[in-house]
Amino acid sequence: MKRIIANGQVLDQGELVKRDILIENGNVAEIAPSIPADGVDEVIDAKGNFVSSGLIDVHVHYRQPGQEQKETIKTGSMAAAHGGFTTVCAMPNVTPAPDSVNNIEALIKLNHTDGVVHIKQYATITTNRGGDELVDFKALKDAGAFAFSNDGNGIQKSSTMYEAMQQAAKLNMAIVEHVQDDALTYGGVLNGGAAKRLGMKEMPWVSETAQVARDVILAEATGVHYHVCHASSKHTVNVIRAAKQAGINVTAEVSPHHLLLSDANIKEDNSMYKMNPPLRGEDDRQALIEGLLDGTIDMIATDHAPHTKADKDQSIATASFGITGSETAFSMLYTRFVKTGRFTLSQLINWMTKQPASVFNMKGAGTLAAGQPADIAIFDLKDEHEIKESDYLSKGKNSPFTGETVYGGTVMTLVDGEIVYQK
Amino acid sequence: MMQITKPVSFENVVSMEDLSTEDVLSFIHEAQDFKTGKQIELKRPVYAANLFFESSTRTHTSFEMAERKLGLQVVNFDPSNSSLSKGESMSDTVKTFQAIGVDLVAIRDKKNEYYKDLIADPNVHVGIANGGDGSGQHPSQSLLDMMTIYEEFGHFEGLKVAIVGDLTHSRVARSNMEVLTMLGAHVYFGGPKKWYTEEFAKYGEWMPIDDLVEEMDVMMFLRVQHERIADDENGSFSAEKYHAQYGLTAERESRMPQRSIIMHPAPVNRGVEIADELVECDKSRIFEQMHNGVFVRMAIMTSMLRNRDLIKEEY
């Protein structure tokens, strides 16, 4: 099968230039100003739209197996494709958890058969994501684990984290941590300002930053690649910056919602603004943006966390933590940050493609170039449209961005040269 | 911070509406370059004239300073002693200056969009920098305001900016609310509510001054005409009352966030929009705005020089 994506605009040295892309046997065969259509099976007219390397999201939650009412691998990956993502990394908080060779092999198989995009699978750090019994790191790596994480929960006991890091370091695998010291959350749900305003319990920033501080020291001692999930506080940014300056192998991601919103946006008891970690202050938001710009934070990852209507149709006090992200990330970030001149398009794309690929050493992802797999997203940067709930392919409709007017809708997504989403 | 190095080139600079986000940021970056010592060398002597059909000492002087700093030869023009008093049209005045060899003009006039006819006229080739048209546009003022904010915060996205005062008669309010929104800032309004019409409601909400001072990053005050205050509220409204109700008092200033700033396009009615002692307080950027005005106007003139390929070297 030979395809040409014609008349697209691709990023070249930070500038958009007109290019045709020839796809052959699932790979990009050629990128040139003009490619003749002789002997080609299909010509896709990109009509001057932006053609990007497919986006990468190192943090999604597909609820299968265990909570298929919230999301399945199929719906989750369709949502990813709708957002222009071609590679995602699925967190291990499913039941049964991928904490054994049997479980992860079954899950990887399901990811492969049901997923419409590339899905890499995290293994847990401890058995059943709780307690302090470490998994068999070597066996899980050999079974195909992408990295190790107990996402949804932090590792509470220092010695457990220390030993996990020692094992992961030996195998050259990353520890990807949802940083949260449970004793310091005090059962809180919101950042200080919003908590006070709405009369809810506060989840203080120390619950995140104190554990990051512990972990970077343990990472220094073990030499492991330690990755911080969804940084939310300016203090966390400072710790990561200092750790990087000290030469510690630490990397970090930030979510679109922590870049786009602060707790000042929570005007009323609306659980679409409830996630963990919570939205923090405007100064925290600015510090996260600065962190991305100066390289302290390496990438953007959505923390796509679908829930049922019943789980979210409650007060912030009791509703489930988490919001979806796959289908709104690019258009919201493009509209709010690139259209306004805060980021360049090339910076944004870098944080959503090349950076995650290079930090996690993903082969064949994150670059649009001849010889690479044809994982491609086409975005319409000119068309203004409203984000509608009815457009979501995810089972989860829990997004605070529904109703926003944005640019940068996905026109088409291809994985290995095959169309997996088309508007 | 995002750096845009693409040099701006414009045939004329007459309206903020013609500028993209990228253009605005490029103008700011170029003005910052001039502020830190950038110079240009011209290919040949270039002549500029400042045609202020409506007087404005500040803007006029600032344009003239910008032109001289760029090495342009400035040709004088006095509307009160010109042929205008003999009934010559603006278009003929501009063509006259063009005919005698002027390359660029800065124009200020009472008539809204006076520049449209000039730009459409195939016989007008001089570069036109709009120094203000009626209640319409004032791009150099708007750009100097943006530069001052950018210097302070390094970005616009997410900033809260209040525009307080005589909204309806202000060029500044209109241009600034549009460009600030485009750059991702959140705009709020203050001052007498009767001046907050629907056209402003589209861009942001009105809030009492006492709430604004506690939340805004930028408090941008507009000059209030004394005669308009008198018009207000059954004629019994004094400058003192305006200050107490809508102005920046020392007490209000004390409640502003640490990093916030105060702006005003000047001239300030001391004790009306802003308390006398606050005009030069730590938070005030009023004189910095005027300082930046020269560099922004250098950038505007440079964009037109570049467009006409009159620059030999930039360093």
TrEMBL record, chain A:
Pathway: Pyrimidine metabolism; UMP biosynthesis via de novo pathway; (S)-dihydroorotate from bicarbonate: step 3/3. Its cofactor is Zn(2+). Binds 2 Zn(2+) ions per subunit. This is Dihydroorotase. Its EC number is 3.5.2.3. Zn(2+) 1 binds at residues 59, 61, 151, 303. Keywords: Hydrolase, Metal-binding, Pyrimidine biosynthesis, Zinc. Transmembrane segments: none annotated. The keyword Nucleus does not apply. The active site is at 303. Gene3D superfamilies: Metal-dependent hydrolases, Urease, subunit C, domain 1. It is an enzyme of class 3 (hydrolase). Substrate binds at residues 61-63, 93, 276, 307, 321-322. InterPro entries: Amidohydro_3 (IPR013108), DHOase (IPR004722), DHOase/Allantoinase_Hydrolase (IPR050138), DHOase_cat (IPR024403), Dihydroorotase_CS (IPR002195), Metal-dep_hydrolase_composite (IPR011059), Metal_Hydrolase (IPR032466). GO terms for molecular function: allantoinase activity; dihydroorotase activity; zinc ion binding. The lineage of its organism: Bacteria, Bacillati, Bacillota, Bacilli, Lactobacillales. Residues 293-421 form the Amidohydrolase domain. Belongs to the metallo-dependent hydrolases superfamily. DHOase family. Class I DHOase subfamily. One of its GO terms (cellular component) is cytoplasm. Catalyzes the reversible cyclization of carbamoyl aspartate to dihydroorotate. Residues 51-235 form the Dihydroorotase catalytic domain.
From TrEMBL, chain B:
Its EC number is 2.1.3.2. InterPro entries: Asp/Orn_carbamoyltranf_P-bd, Asp/Orn_carbamoylTrfase, Asp/Orn_carbamoylTrfase_sf, Asp_carbamoyltransf, Asp_carbamoyltransf_Asp/Orn-bd. L-aspartate binds at residues 86, 171, 223. GO terms for molecular function: amino acid binding; aspartate carbamoyltransferase activity. GO terms for cellular component: cytosol. GO terms for biological process: 'de novo' pyrimidine nucleobase biosynthetic process; 'de novo' UMP biosynthetic process; amino acid metabolic process. It is an enzyme of class 2 (transferase). PANTHER family: ASPARTATE CARBAMOYLTRANSFERASE, ORNITHINE CARBAMOYLTRANSFERASE, MITOCHONDRIAL. This is Aspartate carbamoyltransferase. It comes from Lentilactobacillus otakiensis DSM 19908 = JCM 15040.
